[in-house]
Amino acid sequence: MFENVQQQSSSSLIAPQESIKRERWQKHSLWLSAIRADGRGLFEKMGLPNLRQEEWKYTDVSGLGKQTFSSPTPLAHPLPGSVLQDMLFSRPLSPLRLVFVNGFYSPSLSQAAGLPAGVEIGSLGETLNRNHPLLEKHLAAYAKPEENSFVALNNAFIEDGAFVYIPEGIRLNHPVHLVYISTKSSKNKDDKPGAHHPRNLVIAEKGAAVTLIEDYVGNSSSPYLNNPVTEIVVDDSAEVDHYKLQRESKEALHIATIEVLQGKGSHFSSNSVTFGGLLTRNNIHSYLAGTGSSCTFNGLFIIKDTQHVDNHTLIRHSAPDCRSSELYHGILDDRARGVFNGKIYVEADARKTDSQQTSRSLMLSNDSRVDTKPQLEIFADDVKCNHGATVGQIDTNALYYLRSRGVAAADARKMLTLGFGQQVTSRFKLEPLREAVESFLANRLEEW
Fold this sequence. Notes:
By secondary structure, this protein is α/β, with parallel strands linked by helices.
């Protein structure tokens, strides 16, 4: 009986695949068709996660099974540039920009000229159409559909997203700004919620370096599902500085997965910022497979009303002499709910691992709620690992100090809350983005 419930709950999400097969996928490679077929089969078997599963015990996504979703479809006409400008920060983050509307590449809104020889930055869909040799090796090789039904769902709909390839030894001077816009499709006549499944593949070869910004925005007042999956390969001695911004509309459902494979002596940093959406789930996993590799996870979310944000992180230490550091801060008001589940896994061969994890949550109301679950699983000797989590309200002593010096109560609370958020943003290496996020945070607190 339970399997029947699972199948029924998944059918509305997977049903649009049949029409897309007939319309757009006939000439794609057999290996890609096999990935889609396997993804569909797994999703139909697994269904949507439920609260009885440990990894989803704090986040209820059962409502998705009650919706009927429209088919992922490119817009009939290009989105006006004015719409994009309204969604971007006032200060440009990079001259390299790829824009995707409802999961599909928009050439008219993108700009990626003057790239160094060998560097490829563009549409995954176009790269699939020309059978790029790297895709069969790397695409869908790292994110695990058997462990996450939303990855399986994304596999079933792989069609477009970003492809970023940085050859050996090249250090890209400008960040790559990937903008994902969710908007109402003119082809969606029946007013069904949209479901978008962007797929991104990033490959930084030996000694290469690149900064990436995944920026999710939306102007649709209707509910929609955004289900992106990003796979990142950080080869030996390579560096990837990754930023993910979620500033979608209030009705958005955003469930994202980032899967990273790190080689010897590599470094990866993840900087996740969540402001928007009704429900957000961020899965960020890094696999330190090479000796001497390191990763840094920074996260910040600020939510109110009934917003729900669930950050699930996994850092897997598989090789000796690796380091990891993790800091997540949450700011919650009204009846908002936050979840932090961070796991550090140290395998038997990962000697001399050095790993720290910290989660802090600032509650601005008595009705907000946080569930925090830091985890350590250590199977090696000679390691240094620690974790900690705190949940509390604004420090009354600090508030009293500011009030005693003539600062109004509301301004004092805003200053302390902003300072709490800046403990995370101060770690951002990309200064224009740090300034933009801090300005956005200050404006949000002013509105509150």
